[in-house]
Amino acid sequence: MGKCVEAIELRHLCYFVTAAEHGSFRKAAAVLETQESTISRRVRDLEDRIGASLFHRHSGGVFLTLAGERYLRHARRILRQVRESVTEAVIVGRSEEGRVRMGIFSSLASGFLPDLMRAYDRRHANVQIELVDGNPAEHVAAIRQLQLDVAFLTGKRDWPGCDATPLWSERVFVVLPQSHDLAAKEELHWPELAHEMFIVSEVAPGQEIHDYLVQRLADLGHHPEIQPQYVGRDNLLPLVALGRGLTLTSQATTAAQFPGVCYRPIAGESLPFSAVWSPKNDNPAFRRLLSIAKAMSKGRMTIND
């Protein structure tokens, strides 16, 4: 029985259903653009494989036997399921549906990332986008395990086992109280910040900001005073407003205004952002996102040039 079932091909079912619907091998052959003898032979093969007659033959055409009537329901369901599975595969392959999981390390308030999401949504509105906060190490670990499709990370570091491409840069800003003496300046320089106290969050990107401050101020021969705060960014900026210390942020974040604080750029400082992904990732919805991101990046660089 198993071998008989395995020998049944989709074309057998297609010929059978078409002949049943038109009541004639000749008419079925015309619809399927093949020979009448081919329809007759394949239907006979199908009957031999299942061990039952499906049609009564007569000079005017064919009509179903009782076994044929019952088998027709199953054959139609099988063909419908095959068509639906093919359609679904085509839709996913064209990125018309699916899911993209993105690890983010930048603000969505403004800049490249929200512009990318809007551009992608215009083309692929049915694709679900899931955003995941975290630090670079967590994101890359998830990418290697194919739990994330892509992460947008700062810096130009090489991550073993991953592909990466630079996409955009953001200026670095100091966040300080509006009452601070430096708030009167339009742009700041590192020597002006050497003796300031900074606060950073314990959650991402707090550690990265800490390391960035240490690196920049160490070049001036000064080890900065940095206090960790066990709060997220939304509660860190009110602490800045209260005069508990300064902090750093990227340009995209400055679109979000908080009472009592102001943003001032640091001269000559910018952060490069790159997309990082696994070369084993074959998610077509993600691949389309990456293609749009690269095109946007190239277009912006051309304009800037």
How would you sum up this structure in a few lines?
The protein is α/β, with parallel strands linked by helices and about 300 residues long. The chain is about 45% helix and about 25% strand.
Structure description:
- This protein has 305 residues and is an alpha/beta fold.
- Helix content is 45%, strand content 24%.
- Helix 3 packs across helix 4 and helix 6 crosses helix 11.
- The mean pLDDT is 86.
Helix content: 40-55%
Gross morphology is rod-shaped
* Uncertain residue ranges: none
CATH superfamily of the largest domain: Periplasmic binding protein-like II
Widest beta sheet: strand line-up: 4-3-5-10-6-9
End-to-end separation in angstroms reads: 71 Å
Q: How many DSSP H or I helices?
A: 11
Radius of gyration: 32 Å
Report the order of strands and helices. Answer: HHHHEEHEHEHEEHEHEHEEH
Average residue-wise pLDDT: 86
Largest beta-sheet details: 6 strands, mixed
CATH topology of the largest domain, what is it called? D-Maltodextrin-Binding Protein, domain 2
The CATH class of the largest domain, by name, is Alpha Beta
Strand portion: 15-25%
From the coordinates shown, what is the CATH architecture of the largest domain? Answer: 3-Layer(aba) Sandwich
Number of strands: 10
Classify the secondary structure makeup into a structural class: alpha/beta
Integer count of domains: 3
